[in-house]
């Protein structure tokens, strides 16, 4: 029996906009509501985690898990520029305190994709001023809640904008060759819809009206990012880290990156090197003073002499069209550890499926890889499955089912899946192998 140490953090993750509901001051709320929206459906009440967080954390703890990664929603804390909402900070204080009541370690993410609408109007994630705004927001949160937060992820998947930019470039090149515009959802580790050119044009016009600005200047976190935008993101991280260490030096600070297991067929090595440089190595210089790195992995990508090799009809796929390949996680941890000698937390790993037995198999195989990495001497200190709840998967809406807990959204009733208890049993008793 392969057992994790008692102090190993094992649990599940969520993101505020995807689970809380009624995040009305955020950019995503605006994008979901406009005519011709690219979102399959609006988030609305989501799964009402804002009001039902105690029930959800209780379910996690009852299963035997000891860690909950969640995000604080900037658009709630600072609904208008410079105006902080004490009621909302008190809400997150209550969430943190309840974690401790249930012996659950909280891992807090300060920014998980969604931003205040006002930030986008001010220039968004390509604006120099955003670093100052993010620093101010961080200072307020840590001043109010820092004594309750042991781990902070400043920004979730800081490299996501670059990954989306690569997809958009590939789509543009395909259009120039009169090829299909459709990009498979498995091409990026986020719920993204980039189909239908005419609809997108109407959507951007509607967005311009909703934000009161030229739609070409709307820069959300999920926009394809320029090199300057990449620098701004990492300046946000560095300034947030400095504030955290100034106010509460005992808090462990890191960032999370979306990382595929890039594998090369003969002749594909150069493409793997490019992907690893863009997804990982470009960010390392900014992370030298971090305490840990959050690794987020869902699958692998195979590269041949002509580049990325798409899955064929024999490839086992998840509901998100990722290749079903749980061993990717262990491979990514090993790759990261060759260049990163500090602790690693697996901040996201999971799959969307309608068959919970597939989720159980995925968890078992992924955690076998994690345990092997630990036995090899790699400092992996935690694992949070994505996601605790079936939730709002961005542009893909509620159809995707990543959760350990199903939710009947007509009544907001929770239905724990067997996979929740399986993950808890691994924490308590170890892996089967």
Brief overview, please?
InterPro entries: GH, Glyco_hydro_1. One of its GO terms (cellular component) is cytosol. The chain is α/β, with parallel strands linked by helices and 433 residues long.
Question: Which helices and strands appear, and what pairs or packs with what?
Answer:
Layout: E1 9-13, H1 16-19, H2 27-33, H3 49-62, E2 67-71, H4 74-77, H5 86-101, E3 105-111, H6 117-121, H7 129-145, E4 151-155, H8 160-176, H9 197-211, H10 227-247, E5 252-258, E6 261-264, H11 269-281, E7 292-296, E8 300-304, E9 307-309, H12 328-337, E10 344-348, H13 356-375, E11 380-386, E12 405-408, E13 413-416, H14 418-429
Parallel strand pairs: 1-2, 1-11, 2-3, 3-4, 4-5, 5-7, 6-8, 7-10, 10-11
Antiparallel strand pairs: 8-9, 12-13
Helix pairs in contact: 7-10, 12-13, 13-14
Describe this structure in words.
The protein has 433 residues and is of the alpha/beta class. The chain has a single domain, classed as Alpha-Beta Barrel (TIM Barrel). Helix content is 40%, strand content 15%. It has 14 helices and 13 strands. It has helices at residues 16-19, 27-33, 49-62, 74-77, 86-101, 117-121, 129-145, 160-176, 197-211, 227-247, 269-281, 328-337, 356-375, 418-429, and strands spanning 9-13, 67-71, 105-111, 151-155, 252-258, 261-264, 292-296, 300-304, 307-309, 344-348, 380-386, 405-408, 413-416. Strands 1-2-3-4-5-7-10-11 form an eight-stranded parallel beta barrel, surrounded by six helices. A three-stranded mixed β-sheet has the order 6-8-9. Helix 7 (129-145) packs parallel to helix 10 (227-247), helix 12 runs parallel beside helix 13 and helix 13 packs parallel to helix 14. The protein starts with 8 loop residues before the first strand and ends with a helix. Mean pLDDT is 94; it is low at 178-183.
């Amino acid at each position: 029996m392969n057992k994790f140490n008692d102090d190993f953090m094992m649990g599940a993750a969520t993101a505020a906009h995807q689970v809380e509901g009624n995040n009305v001051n955020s950019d995503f709320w605006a994008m979901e509501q406009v005519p011709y929206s690219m979102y399959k459906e609006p988030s609305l009440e989501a799964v009402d985690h804002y009001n039902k967080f105690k029930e959800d954390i209780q379910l996690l703890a009852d299963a035997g898990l000891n860690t909950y990664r969640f995000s604080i929603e900037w658009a709630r804390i600072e609904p208008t520029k410079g105006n902080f909402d004490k009621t909302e900070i008190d809400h997150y204080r209550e969430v943190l305190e309840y974690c401790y009541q249930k012996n659950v370690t909280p891992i807090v993410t300060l920014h998980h994709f969604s931003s205040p609408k006002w930030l986008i109007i001010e220039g968004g994630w390509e604006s120099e001023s955003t670093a100052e705004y993010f620093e101010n927001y961080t200072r307020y949160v840590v001043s109010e809640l820092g004594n309750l937060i042991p781990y902070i992820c400043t920004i979730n998947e800081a490299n996501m904008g670059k990954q989306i930019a690569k997809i958009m470039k590939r789509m543009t090149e395909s259009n120039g060759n009169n090829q299909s515009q459709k990009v498979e959802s498995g091409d990026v580790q986020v719920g993204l819809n980039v189909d239908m050119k005419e609809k997108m044009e109407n959507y951007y016009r509607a967005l311009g009206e909703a934000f009161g600005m030229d739609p070409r200047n709307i820069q959300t976190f999920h926009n394809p990012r320029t090199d300057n935008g990449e620098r701004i993101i990492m300046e946000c991280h560095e300034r947030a880290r400095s504030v955290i260490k100034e106010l509460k030096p005992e808090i462990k600070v890191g960032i999370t990156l979306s990382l595929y297991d890039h594998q090369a067929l003969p002749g594909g090595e150069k493409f793997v090197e490019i992907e690893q440089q863009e997804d990982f190595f470009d960010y390392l210089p900014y992370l030298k003073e971090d305490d840990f790195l959050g690794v987020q992995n869902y699958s692998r990508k195979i590269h041949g002499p002509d580049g990325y090799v798409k899955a064929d009809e024999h490839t086992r796929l998840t509901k998100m069209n990722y290749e079903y390949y749980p061993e990717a996680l262990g491979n990514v941890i090993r790759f990261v550890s060759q260049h990163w000698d500090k602790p690693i937390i697996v901040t996201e790993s999971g799959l969307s499926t309608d068959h919970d037995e597939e989720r159980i198999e995925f968890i078992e195989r992924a955690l076998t890889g994690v345990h092997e990495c630990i036995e090899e001497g790699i400092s992996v200190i935690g694992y949070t499955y994505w996601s605790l709840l079936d939730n709002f998967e961005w542009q893909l809406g509620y159809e995707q089912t990543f959760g350990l807990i199903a939710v009947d959204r007509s009544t907001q009733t929770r239905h724990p899946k067997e996979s929740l208890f399986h993950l808890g049993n691994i924490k308590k008793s170890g892996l089967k192998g």
